Batch of 4 targets.
Target 1
Amino acid sequence: MPAEKTYCIALPETGLKPQFKLHLTASKSESNRVLIIRALCAEFFEINNLAAAQDTQTLLRLLHQKAGLFDAGHAGTTMRFLTAYLTASGIRGELTGSERMKERPIGILVEALRKLGATIHCKEKEGYPPLVLASDGLSGGSVPMDGSVSSQFISALLLIAPTLEKGLKIDLRGKVISRPYINMTLRMLEHFGAKAAWEGTTIAVKEGGYSPRSFTVESDWSAASYWYAVAALAKNTKIYLKGLKKKSLQGDAVLVPWFEKLGVHSAFDASGVWLSRLPDFRLPEIFAANFEDCPDIAQTIATVCAGLQLKADLTGLQTLRIKETDRVLALQQELQHFGVPTEAIGKDRLLILPNAPPAWDGTAITTYHDHRMAMAFAPLAMRTGKLHIANPGVVKKSYPHYWDHLKTAGFAITVA
């Protein structure tokens, strides 16, 4: 179906299938990291189950480019990782992105790379893309880094660190957010033979490069969140998600204990996890969670609480303001179409205050070029009967088969 269309997401009278299995899309976070590592490794190695996400495929394509204009589109991770990779590799050119990408700050990473010897010019506005890169490579050393804005800046430096002469020390300043993503990067460095240690406020990586080893990408826990949402809003449906691990590199695996509080039980086996409703479950009076370590699942939790008529106090949302859109504001605007009151407190807190069952007012959900808006709101059709999603093609950014998987589950999807 064309991306510019609006989809009608409906729940048939027969409801969802009582049981179904899905092979989730692979982790974009793991895929993008391992692609950078392979590009920096002296020898080629196999990557199994690479993500089909547009962001990952964009990075894969740009890594084969040796000069000229590098266009990352809407892909934030691709933009940040390529900034470090291209300068460290001495590849010259211009790195740009979508109009929204040009509004997303990258100055913290640019300044750190400049301290390591990079020549980077911000073409339109200091601290923002597009970037003109004119470096012959980087030297190692020690750099300060504000950890309160984006963990992707830190991961971008860590990925190039083993290839730098004398390695790299990052002196973290401020409150470090999204720690699981940094830990993921460090564990992947170690998988490929790099030596790294995080002690206190310092992360140190030794010189030595990478050793070629095959790598299998896990299924994506961010994508799994939408199926946890379906399980939470369903009555008796059992869902099997293939490719997820109980011990995961991904911080979004916090879904397991969080959704236990929302009535969803997770039963792991060697190949994945079964989701099912807990019997005789009662919701808490309020659901409270901090998303500093897992911002990508905040929209999912917000819409689930709205669907369950459950008050929620969501904190640690500061990075949502600088994503594909201002996700806090976008949530507030679109939940209005279901009669769900919200209150934003400061830049990092959102209250969900449902006082009646969600009732869709007939207005198509705007997605703001944000894949997670489309995927987080679609399961609400289970409580409203149907709803419309504008620009549904945005899901290709991270989960291209999302609409097909909803059909597998029993949802009816048509062009509105």
Note: The mean pLDDT is 95.
Target 2
Amino acid sequence: MDRLFTRVLAQHKPGVIKEEINVFLRRLNTILTERKIEATAMVGGSVAKGTHLYSYDCDIFVVFSRKYQDDDLSLLLAKAVAGFRNKKVLHGSRDYFQILHAGIIFELIPVLQIKSAADARNVTDVSPLHVEWVNSHIKNLQDNVRLAKLFCKAQGIYGAESYINGFSGYTLEILVIMYGGFLPMLKAVSSFHPKQIIDIAHYYASREELLGRMNAAKLQSPLIVVDPVQSDRNAAAAVNEEQFSKFIIAAKLLLQKPSPDFFIKKSFSLSQLHHQSKTLGVSLLLFSVIPVDGKEDVVGSKLIKAFEYITNKVKTAEFHILNKGWQWGKEVYFWYFVYPKELPRYERHIGPLVYSANHHIVAFIKKHKSFIVENNRLIAFRRRKYNTLAAFAKGVGNDASIKEKVKKIKSLT
């Protein structure tokens, strides 16, 4: 297993942190000093913890003195970065800035200087404390965290964004530290059950105490990882049942038969989708999608809502879905393995009970002149809106609710 991990890391481990980061940091701190803004810029995120992968963005925390606790930190930071080129304002709990410099994407995040999570004025204020905790506990486990990230990326379960509902880098760092390495973590994960609790800082004396004291909204996920710097926060709150299950089964399979394939994300292929649908004897319902512009999490959230909306429409139209998925890379695709290709032109429409009030009976008969009585109910046969997959696919492209979520959608069926 060690040889496998060494091979994987050799392909993905980054080199020495680029000097450009230090140059950028010095320039930013000089500007803050010149403008007499009491704040210090420091490297944050995975780069600061040494758990970043070969391809990475660099978080910069701009830590403001508590004298600014009632001020708009985003506005103060905006003044400091006014002279930088290639910058974008991104909206979050506080506005922050993305700057492309020397080939590196820097994300500048304004935070208030705090000593404990209880002093935070904004959720981002706690982020430097996460870095501090990880760096004081990680010892020599940075490469183990990298393996965990690569493993989860390959399974499609890495990221706490709302369209992924997976594992954040911080959650994986806590798990690796908790179990003392990637392999021990996998062994533990393979035995996880719903409402698994990880409390590495031992804030709670028992499971019952945790479940009784933590906010119920933070206990909805199948995995509860108590944030070691914030006892009332579940660091794994974003994880849903599907991603939790994928994590467990992938861990079991890797332990059973180790392979580098577990660290390589499967490539998306339209030709492979067509081939698989033919093999399975189903039809491929396929859409090419152009997403709206905006922040990745917002765009991704709209895409997943559009995907789920179409899923529900397929089911409502009474087609059956054997499998489904979506791909977001250079291009976006929604795909569904569907059967049958054609439905009867008419569908059963269930009406009121024969014992219902007369006005209900009259209204149904007026709308559906032909009907039968079955199991004490009136049942009419009405023409379907879509009885072929091709007609359904065309209808999706003209759906107003879809157009609210994506810029353009085109059927490839």
Note: The chain has four domains: 16-123, 138-263, 270-342+387-411, 346-383.
Target 3
Amino acid sequence: MFFRDTLFVRKLFLLIPAILACSLVWYRFSLRPADFGNNDRVSVRIEAGTSTRGIAEVLHDRGVLRSPLAFRIHTRLLGADASLQAGTFILHSGMTQGEIIEALQSGKALEIAVTIPEGFTVTDIDALLVKKNLSATGAFLRCTQECDLQEFAFLPLSDGFAPRGGKVEGYLFPDTYFVSVESFSPEAFLHRLLTNFRMKVIDELGGEVGLSGRSFHEILAMASLIEEEAITDAERPVISGILWKRFDDGRGLGVDATIRYILQKPSSTITAGDLNVDSPYNTRKFRGLPPGPIANSGRRSIEAALRPTDSSYWYYLHDRNGKIHYAVTNEEHNLNRIEYLNK
């Protein structure tokens, strides 16, 4: 019995260092960046009152941490577990755990993510920047009218054609932008939006626009209608084909979204008086495209404006569940209105 106990103890003494060595290797490996060399930034939100365990799980879920357990051990050893702050932080998977902890201890994010959704107007962007506490109400709007934009030669030359969005409505590319909280300025941000548009649209699709037989401004105006009218990607080229066919035939486009735009009524009911508003944006009353885009379109809507699908349809509507119904004749369209909209 004594011999067996002695042998067990010896094995235990040999095993413990091996376990400790393996644990140390695991610990050091787990402290390394989750994806070394990857500087793709992600927004991480830490709610007030979140425990160290909860913070570790959030960081791991966002892909900036190898091991939640190693993070908890590391913060405990550093005595930093009680000093991690709540807030929204811009981190990346190439950061070491020390850099992550330092960022969370500061309680300040050097950058924040500003996402411009497809279909946003200049007014919407202005309101978003106010909500993010980046600028005062109206500051971005004023900049679209007053800031120096001469370097962006693709912008329309005429002034005042779009009362709400100026020369830039429709030319601001929807995307996620990381901006500095401390050095943010409406003019610098506007330049970033236009520069991104130049790279993503002008440089990549400019040749196709030239071959389309349409002006660039017409393509963007149509893309904005498609952005507002289509619900699914499959609908975009079909709606594009219908609207271009009506445009080329000299018929009214009849897109209520243009009326909503000029009257700043994004969701409330359009009245009979609204439909009679005397504005070139009223595509129920005036034929042709509106004077300018009514929204900043995403890539898919711009491509749909460039690549319309030919069909026999002249009309379309969405029912109350969002399903689209096409029609060849006005009579068929009216029957669809009665059946699907009860009108």
Note: The first strand starts at residue 41 and ends at 46.
Target 4
Amino acid sequence: MSNYILITDSSADLTERMVKELDVEVLPLTFTIKGKSRQNWPDNRDMSPKAFYKLLREGEMATTAAVNVADVIEKVEPYLKDGQDVLMLSFSSGLSATCNSAQIAAQELGEKYPERKFFVVDTLCASLGQGLLVWHAAQRRAAGESIEAVRAWTEEHKLNLCHWFTVDDLHFLKRGGRVSAATAMVGTMLSIKPVLHVDDEGHLIKVGTARGRKASLRALVDHMAQTAIDPGEQTIFISHGDCEEDAKAVAEDVKARFGVKTVVINNVGPVIGAHSGPGTVALFFLGTSR
């Protein structure tokens, strides 16, 4: 394997098992709920997804914090000092200041270790969309590609990483300013569910609605039908906000419609879940465009 380290942050929502299998390092982001700050680790050591979403359903609010420059330096510097190069695939700059912190850290560390390489890619991705880009990067590293080649591939293809979301409760999107209070109230009364995606600038954007939960889940797969590149040959990722059965239903739809063989399902972590809420389902794949 090529001698460089792949790092991402915990908003990628990779499972602990995948982190080990892919041989990637994860920088944890921070979330605060019930007055206590916790770190979002892949092994959920500070709080389980079940416990987190239970608190949200009970009316608790959660806030999140980006990684700061010192956090990135603390994580990366030991590798550079040890003679290894680092490629970091960061949470979308359209949703977090984490990438900016990483870029500042890269500049500082570049001056201190001029003989080493520390590259930061603004993935413009979130949740398992970011995780899927990391997965592809890890496959390419395992195949022997250089740090420059993997960096170039991720920069070239990150806008092919399609994100399609729906949520069950508009309250959380209202609180985050994604929908108006009136839209949330009417939508809740009429069981209208938003369909959202992450755009080319890495922002979460509402692009449509569906009447009822089943229709909104079907809409995610309909969007995949419009843009997916050779879907039957892809590994597809699906994340969910404590609604695994709905995620499994989307997985079965994807398999039935496109012949997809491999689907990876995991929780939406607290960094994204604080803003999207319980009942979120998101579908990620490579497409011709977002």
Note: The chain has two domains: 4-158, 160-286.
